[in-house]
Amino acid sequence: MTFFTTEIRRDPLALPPLDKVPEHVAIIMDGNGRWARHRGLPRSAGHRQGTENLRRIIRAAAEFGVRIVTIYAFSTENWARPRREVMLLMRILEMVIDRELQELDEEGVQIRHIGELDGIEERLARKVIEACEFTRDNQRLILNVAFNYGGRDEIVHAVQNIVRDGIAAEAITEATINNYMYTSDLPDPDLIIRTSGESRLSNFLIWQGAYSEIYTTETYWPDFGRSAFYEALVEYGNRRRRFGKTDDQINGEQMKATRVKERTI
């Protein structure tokens, strides 16, 4: 199995170029269990199919020019699920690392972990660390795996570390806090996608997602393939991001940028 090159070359379903491509896309991969239930299958089948779908989305992200993908693989709240399902999710992550690491590395994917490894079985924690180290120099696509991750937990850890470093209260700014987040060296997500019809962040990137565009779809994650991903990117391209400014300000900035570009041609 090849994640990118071969698959793209063989794909006969060419799609029009995107006018605007988000640099960073974050995904809440929801609906695995419901996908399985609607087919009379155990939840485990949904989780496995969801993992298979991740291949398609990583491949499509590279094809469409997305530079960073952040996936919500396991939240701090997921520990409340039945123990059997939790253990299955742990085994699936370990299986993915064992099976796909070499291919991801060869295709230029840099794997990063965001979250905490405390409480994770030692063997799995070691494999996560080794996967990140093994791919650290790759530049084609950054894949952030939010595993044992919670947005509020991340902010708490950031504040604790700020205090430990002795930074005075009056010296703390947004930039200070941002520098202590897991994604401190990366741009915030331009687009957050959530599958299966839910319309909440569920404690995912709540600091980084302050100005992200949100896209929700009724499609369950295992069925959210290349075409569905493309549709989400098209929708993103049709939105106007103001960041607190007015339409007149945005129009003026765009006109100014156009004039500057014309003078340099």
Give me some keywords for this one:
265 residues, alpha/beta, Undecaprenyl pyrophosphate synthetase, globular
Count of DSSP H/I helices? 9
CATH class: Alpha Beta
Radius of gyration, rounded? 20 Å
Main sheet strand line-up: 3-4-2-1-5-6
What does this structure look like?
This protein has 265 residues and is an alpha/beta fold. The protein has one domain (20-264): 3-Layer(aba) Sandwich (Undecaprenyl pyrophosphate synthetase). The protein contains 9 helices and 6 strands; from the N terminus they run αβααβαβαβααββαα. The protein has helices at residues 5-10, 32-37, 43-64, 83-106, 122-134, 151-164, 174-179, 226-237, 247-264; strands at 24-28, 68-75, 109-114, 141-149, 191-194, 213-216. Strands 3-4-2-1-5-6 form a 6-stranded parallel sheet, sandwiched between helices. Strand 3, helix 5 and strand 4 form a beta-alpha-beta unit. Helix 3 packs parallel to helix 4 and helix 4 (83-106) packs parallel to helix 5. The longest helix is centred in the middle third of the chain and has 24 residues, at 83-106. Mean pLDDT is 90; it is low at 4-10.
